[in-house]
Task: inverse folding
């Protein structure tokens, strides 16, 4: 095990979703003001390490984020890049960053910068063709390539570019096509079950069927092999994931990797891990940053997730996404991404009782502890001082608290955009504002005497998914959150008060699991409930010692594992967990 000198101090922790000041968007379907929706959005992240600093570009952000340590991210606005182009791509070429983004029907420009914080972006070219979800890739020999695609009907394309003009050299090649008959994870639908699909207010279910949107291309070269990554089946599903193909040359021919998807998070508090980018940190560690979904107010209501990644000795690309929305330390040195399967701290607040100063009947306080980012408690007024209190049921060792805000009623309070700037006719980004999410977090052992552990009323910071790590662990039973100023003066709404620490008692027993392969793409897993278990972590993979994928469950004792590749054997292990920790299964079951 690595010590704190490498894994970082108590303050060097992150907890997905990454806490960014996600920008608010406005949707007015068919121009109907009564149907107006306002929601936060952050998706399609592209991250690079440039001159000792990390830069992250995110869709519809009107700027970018930068960080020195992958923990604290700072926003830098810019008026020199297009504000309303989707899936911005960033690549470091020499001492400069090159940026492009998505447009359909008109040429896509390229920009570059030596010093992004100085806002010195300049347009290199107005572009010579249109593309969607771009990924620019500079090879070691100086050659330049572009990959792109975002459609349920067309493939992922690639083409070589002239390094000077950034125009195509030769014809584009079709590199990846979907195959839902053999790749279970590409099938559209919640947990791979058919689901109605709505885009721009229109039902496209019948037209699309289970066809995935192939999108989010990203190229990584490792040990002479080209890894072309892509996402499917759709951003609005819990199964949104990234797979890959490999080749010995940048335009193929490519071979599908049977270990796909390599980035997948279908269970837990927040789900989805598709359309991302793979990069190395300053210590050589690999990371994958991806899109996580909420998709309640609108399919594009999304967030960002950060996951340890890497390549094994056989060149298999993977992510460690076990307990991927629990706190994780960010290292200050080289680490083994599989150093830890079980988290350092467990969840103490699952289904804990909660009371509040007020609540809507349809959104009671208990929804703040049900471990689902898609449900929430909401106060019945927009007044400051509304509060919610979580009762852990007994004194417990509290290490950290994550407060996740929701935006159910923002449309009634946010201003309407009037300057006409927009991405499409019914989709607009609201004018930026200095939002503050003022929250006071207190803890108590008896509900009478309270200790303030965080107070952001004077910080003027927008932290919709704040993780507060206590200076030292405290024995507490109650956690209370009280609202001050909130964005646009909207009501206090919380999708998750998540309390982390370690409970007492023995670890739960391991379940006895039975499995059968329902079809070539699906396995059914069953087990009896384990006394004292909060839930189960299903790990699976294409080799008994390479269980690289996982599915986090609370309470369920069956799983239709629909992400399998036809003709590929799999091995499965089911761990059990409680507040005291995780019982890790050592035996695997072939399916």
Result:
């Amino acid at each position: 095990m690595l010590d704190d000198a490498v894994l970082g101090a108590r303050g060097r922790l992150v907890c997905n979703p990454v806490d960014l000041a996600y920008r608010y968007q406005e949707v007015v379907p068919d121009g109907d003001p009564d149907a107006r929706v306002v929601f936060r959005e952050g998706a399609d992240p592209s991250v690079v390490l440039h001159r000792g600093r990390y830069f992250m570009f995110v869709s519809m952000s009107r700027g970018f984020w930068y960080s020195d340590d992958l923990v604290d991210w700072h926003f830098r606005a810019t008026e020199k890049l297009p504000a309303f182009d989707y899936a911005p791509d960033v690549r470091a070429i020499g001492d400069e960053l090159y940026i492009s983004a998505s447009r359909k029907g008109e040429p896509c420009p390229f920009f570059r910068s030596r010093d992004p914080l100085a806002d010195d972006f300049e347009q290199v070219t107005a572009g010579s063709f249109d593309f969607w979800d771009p990924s620019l890739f500079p090879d070691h020999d100086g050659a330049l390539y572009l990959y792109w695609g975002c459609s349920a009907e067309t493939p992922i394309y690639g083409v070589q570019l002239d390094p000077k003009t950034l125009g195509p050299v030769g014809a584009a090649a079709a590199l990846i096509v979907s195959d839902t008959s053999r790749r279970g994870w590409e099938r559209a639908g919640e947990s791979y079950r058919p689901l109605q699909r709505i885009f721009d207010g229109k039902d496209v279910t019948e037209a699309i069927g289970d066809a995935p949107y192939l999108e989010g291309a990203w190229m990584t070269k490792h040990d002479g092999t080209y890894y072309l990554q892509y996402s499917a089946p759709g951003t609005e599903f819990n199964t949104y994931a990234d797979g890959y193909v490999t080749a010995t040359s940048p335009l193929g021919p490519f071979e599908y990797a049977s270990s796909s998807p390599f980035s997948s998070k279908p269970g837990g508090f927040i789900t989805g891990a598709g359309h991302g980018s793979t990069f190395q940190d300053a210590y050589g560690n690999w990371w994958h940053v991806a899109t996580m979904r909420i998709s309640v107010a609108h399919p594009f209501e999304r967030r960002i997730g950060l996951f340890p990644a890497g390549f094994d000795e056989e060149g298999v690309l993977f992510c460690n996404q076990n307990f991927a929305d629990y706190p994780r330390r960010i290292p200050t040195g080289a680490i083994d991404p599989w150093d830890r399967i079980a988290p350092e701290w467990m969840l103490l607040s699952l289904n804990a009782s909660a009371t509040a100063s007020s609540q809507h009947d349809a959104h009671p306080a208990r929804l703040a502890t049900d471990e689902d980012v898609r449900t929430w408690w909401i106060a019945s007024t927009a007044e400051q001082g509304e509060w919610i209190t979580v009762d852990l049921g007994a004194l417990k060792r509290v290490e950290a608290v994550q407060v996740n805000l929701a935006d159910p009623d923002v449309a009634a309070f946010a201003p309407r955009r009037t300057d006409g700037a927009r991405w499409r006719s019914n989709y607009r980004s609201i004018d930026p504002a200095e939002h503050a999410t003022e929250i006071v977090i207190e803890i108590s052992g008896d509900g009478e005497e309270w200790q303030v552990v965080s107070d952001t009323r004077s910080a003027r910071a927008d932290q919709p998914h704040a993780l507060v790590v206590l200076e030292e662990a405290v024995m507490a039973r109650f956690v209370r959150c009280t609202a001050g100023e909130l964005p646009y003066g909207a009501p206090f709404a919380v999708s998750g008060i998540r309390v982390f620490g370690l409970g007492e008692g023995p670890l739960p027993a391991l379940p006895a699991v039975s499995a059968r392969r329902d079809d070539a793409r699906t396995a059914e897993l069953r087990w009896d409930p384990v006394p004292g278990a909060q839930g189960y972590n299903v790990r699976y993979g294409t080799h008994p010692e390479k269980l690289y994928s996982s599915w986090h469950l609370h309470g369920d004792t069956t799983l239709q594992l629909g992400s399998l590749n036809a003709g590929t054997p799999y091995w499965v292990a089911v761990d059990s967990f409680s507040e005291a920790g995780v019982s890790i299964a050592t035996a695997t079951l072939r399916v």
Remarks:
- The chain has two helices and 44 strands.
- The radius of gyration is 23 Å.
